[in-house]
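#onboarding

Welcome to the new folks! Below is a worked example of what a typical request in this channel looks like: someone posts a single protein sequence, and someone else replies with the predicted structure as tokens. Don't worry about understanding the tokens yet, we'll cover that in week two.

Example request:
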Amino acid sequence: MLFWLLDNLKLKPEDTLWVGVQQELEGEYAIAARLRKEYPSLDIRVVSIDFQTRGAAETLFIMLQHMSSAEIRRKSISLDCDTIYFSDVLGSFRACASGCGSSFYFEDEGDKPIFSYIEFEPSTDKIVYIREKEAISRHANTGAYAFPCGDRLRMACREVLDNPVGKAGEFYTSSIIERMIQAGQKFVGIHVPDFFCVGTPAQLRSFLGLVQKGGVVPRRKTRVFFDLDRSLRMARSATGADPTASVRSGDLDKHLLMKTRNTGTSLEDPVSGQPAAGDITIGGRTGNAHQDMQEEIGRCLKESEIEEAVSSCCAQDFVRPRSFNRITCSEDNLVTKSAPLEYLRGELHFYRSIPPELVHLFPTLVKVNDDPALAMPSMTITKIDGVSFSHLVTNHCVTRGRCSKLLRSLREIHEAKKIPRGPHGEVGTSGPGEENNGPSSKDGIYYDGVVIAPCSEPLHREIFTERLPSQQNQRQGLPASTICANLHKKVLRRLGQNEAVYTGFEGIDVPGMSRIILSYLRSYQEGARFRRADFVHGDPVFSNCLQNKEGDVAFVDMRGALGDLLCTEGDTNYDLAKVYQSLCGYDFIIMDKDVDPNAVEMLRDLEQNVFWPFVRENYAGTKPEDIAMLAASHFLSMVPLHENRGHQARFMRACNDIVTKWSS
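Example response:
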């Protein structure tokens, strides 16, 4: 389908062809390699996207984000890959007046409005309105849209993505053009006389039938190489006899010609040896090297991939969990997280403590299971229908608006106040000797007076009683000595217990860097520079922040503990340092992505124009160097938690960069 599209476009050597491809399809079909092999003279750039975008506008934005400053200034045209043009759309695009955009259309005679439609200014070709799935005229768009320059297109994409998706359900290209028209950009309509859409199986079958009947002539000739020699020699009859055993090798060519002539097949002279480049081979035992070879041959090719395939039950929407966690998704939009009790305890406590005003920021806890027969206890929550900010940022798709929304949502958490609790932490119950305002929690986890999740007695008792703060601390807040007491101690412990892990990082003075960080943490704790809040997330790196289908932010994997103490309180600086950690490239490391110059520019823009201005405005008195050095300590302390040596080295370089920038 893609080759048909490209074969019929009148491309020039100076053109750059950008192709957006789902990472899964690229892995299965090696589209980038095949395109470069088929079109060696073209400048082809393939952008692999590893999450399901919410429409063409988001896909376009990701591709534009990968362009250089020179490339983004050029005229650009967007073409759907499922529409084949037999008229010269590129010629019309090149002839379009400078500074003018265009939409390519046809006359839709159908009854259902399944396209986007344009309306012209009377007696001109100037577009005044464009609507998606609303037949304001018979002029329906083919899926080809031209823009005066990529930079203006990117700006419009950014504005569209920073708004709710609305009733449309996805971000269409028509919404970009509508916004540009409203801003004064001129667009004209260009009629397309001859094209074919192959976007559905029925349309594709119809097109191939037309090709078969000669209604469409392919622009390329492709030889099909039938490996009849080996196929026939390998064929066996029911009795096990070789049906071609009696055919002498010298007579085999004649035998094949006779067979194909009898079936009415046109056959060139038989070819000996291997087929030439561009030919297609059909044989009895061939595998397609462009596809997944493990699927082709039915074998795992690497020992490490066997364990990975068996143990991996994660949906692609999630970042791979740590080794001590197991995450599975069910068909009923539920996610089950299994982990040792020490890792689940705090998160369960946080879910149990969520006040009404924060419910919209988190999944719903459905059930808790600590059956002794299970290897590990588990918790089940509702699945957020969306994408992690890790996927967004590593695909260059975090806009200023999206980053601002994430920070505003985090601020909501920090501004929330506790719900009064009883002696065993039950919601809605005051302290001893005071009026009881709610039910007991012994039979389950309560939220606003309603049981939302069953909880067995052993897990309930261990999680929600033994390690809760005292009643006085619950009412008055944790003492200053507790809020940030674990910072210095944790880093020092990790360094002491993992000396071998912290050696061998070329170009980094690990002892010197560690001393600077430890000294800063001690000063931070002794100076009590923390910012207390009743609620902190505890780990809002981008992998724990999600954008749902409506464009709102949700959080997962909350900590709910300070060391061994179960509590939602904490230091807002700690949360902000986790966000800053992502703005320093953390997600590119865990996702095995390179931080290219465009990514560096995106992260720098988000840091300078969104993050620090937001901190100054909403967290008065917070010192930027405190946030930065806390982020450096995060990078340093996480090294032993990751087995990938390449990741460890990148964590250390990120840590060193922060220390070099902020400690002087």
